[in-house]
Amino acid sequence: MLDTLDAAAVRRWCASGLAAMRRHQGEIDDLNVYPVPDGDTGTNLVLTLTSAQQALAMDLDTLPEDGHTPHGHALRLMARGALLGARGNSGVILSQILRGFADALAATPAVRGRQLAAALADAATAAYGAVARPVEGTLLSVVAAAARAADQADSDDLRVVARAAAGGAARALARTTEQLPALARAGVVDAGGRGLCVLLDALVEVITGESPQQPAPAPPTVRPPATAVRETGSPEYAYEVQFLLEAGAEAVARLRAELDALGDSLVIVGDGGDGGGTWNVHVHVNDVGGAIEAGVVAGRPHRISVTRFADQVAPAPPPPTLRPDGRAAVVVAAGAGIAELFGAEGATVVPGNPSTGELLDAIRATGAARVVVLPNDPNTQSVASAAAKEAHRLGVKVSVVPTRSPVQALAALAVRDPGRRFEDDVIAMAEAAGACRYAEVCHASREALTVAGPCRPGDVLALVEGEVHLIGADLLDTCTAVVDRMLGGGGELVTLLCGADAPAGLADRVREHVARAWPFVEVQAYEGGQPHYPLLLGVE
Fold it and tell me: Is the pTM of this model over 0.90?
């Protein structure tokens, strides 16, 4: 049990939180408000925390600066890694929670109960500040409740306050279905809030030493591919960890068993006998933090090096020199056909569901001093805003046009004019995107109660501006019905993007229907290749 939160505890919290999030990843992914097959909050939180842990693992030898304590420095590294790896709204908000937490404790000599409560209050403030229009019944409500419960505990005992915070978060999570009608209709609690509860439970475990009574089984995870040629071992492990270790033979024997369970290509050689000595440790793993922590438990590791195989294929080229008068557009695209359309418009394309760091890299790679970003997904808008803030620090002016669908981005790119002032051009693009109404057609992935009535798995759903408007049994009939509904409000141009799973001839059948029912409306159809949605459509 801990009386104060030190740097080693911060590292254990990050590692334990990531492991717990992986165990609950599938459960959190399934907490999806809409019955569409792309709920990924759990995956986004895992990727965000993975980046946080990697930031900690890569900077073990970095000394604190600017008067920060060792635990404050570790928290800053964790928050920075989470920010650059943040994916989705939940990932961005979590990174801001960690930033507020780190800022509050950066120079605090000792972290006890009241200091933890104050840090949670700052974390809640930072989370609310990251959202333009805060909504209760979400991750925000859960972190605010955790902070209030911690404050009401009114104790210097770190364990008492940590337990109070986790308990307050759990109670707030249960109330999210009462606060947000969409959650009540779907019969689920907020996914991001559930993820925060998992992370706070991990903090309680680190502080108190009490493990959960019934840990959830770990779902299968997809490991990132390692593209470099390595000397030995399976390609399923992405990192090489090496360090020198001062330890006894018995401790090394235990370390050997632990590292063998974590990865492969394990080699431990040294001059130590029963009394101790120096050992050279080498292993390939995915869990970098776990491998290093095992070394810390065994003895005193030093000269630690971590190599990511994917980074060894070829050194990344330096970012191009910034062009003061240069302009560029960065667009997020899920689907090969959509990416090709945006590329033809001269835009830099980033694959769907990017992290903050990936968007920032794309912005920098343009070499332009003025960049417009089109996120094309409500869940990516906060990631784009975070990347824009980071780019501003590098001297790049970035404006985010809040496109919620690729059809809106196509409308925005069509009116770009390099002859206009950048600010005026951004306004024109935003107006064009806003004038394009959008819809999505997909198959229901589960039973749910929507504003259009109940649906069952396999039903065809038509969502207009993100809300379910139609529920049907036939894909073509539902597609033509939603086109009619949208054109009933006016329109001169219909844009169709057919998905990867769209049946052959779907666009032609919809085009024929529009020609009969709406003879003065133009139709443009493209193979988008997007997953999950057989048809995306826009009306201008």
Answer: no
